[in-house]
Inverse folding.
């Protein structure tokens, strides 16, 4: 299984940079970002990346549900439900945890784990009620 991080400009590359610093480089993780070159350019670049994954499974992590990267990724999930999953709300703990599971975990288990991590990593250390 492969991991693709698809976000608006700056986020995916930042997540991969932080991942690589903390856990080391992982060739099974790729990224694509929507930039000011526009949606058409993003769609073309996205299609090129997905060509590489034709023979395998890919978990796509996006930043905003219903944002452009998410909607384009969702199209691929609908066309290839047997080998593509899309999870929105990507964060660094999600990327770190999933990067260690890419070889052994199933696509559905990885998608479920991404959701679990995303939910569990949101916390407030000290909350003062007014």
């Amino acid at each position: 299984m492969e991991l693709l991080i698809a976000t608006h400009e700056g986020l995916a590359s930042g997540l991969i940079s932080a991942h690589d610093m903390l856990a080391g480089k992982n060739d099974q993780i790729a990224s694509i970002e929507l930039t000011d070159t526009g949606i058409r350019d993003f769609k073309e670049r996205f299609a090129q990346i997905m060509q590489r994954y034709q023979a395998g499974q890919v978990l796509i992590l996006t930043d905003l549900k219903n944002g452009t990267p998410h909607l384009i990724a969702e199209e691929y999930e609908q066309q290839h439900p047997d080998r593509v999953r899309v999870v929105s709300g990507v964060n660094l703990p999600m990327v770190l945890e999933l990067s260690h599971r890419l070889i052994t975990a199933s696509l559905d288990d990885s998608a479920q784990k991404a959701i679990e991590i995303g939910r569990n990593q949101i916390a407030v250390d000290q909350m003062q009620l007014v």
Notes: The two ends are 47 Å apart (CA to CA). The chain has five helices and four strands. Residues 57 and 83 are 4 Å apart (CA to CA).
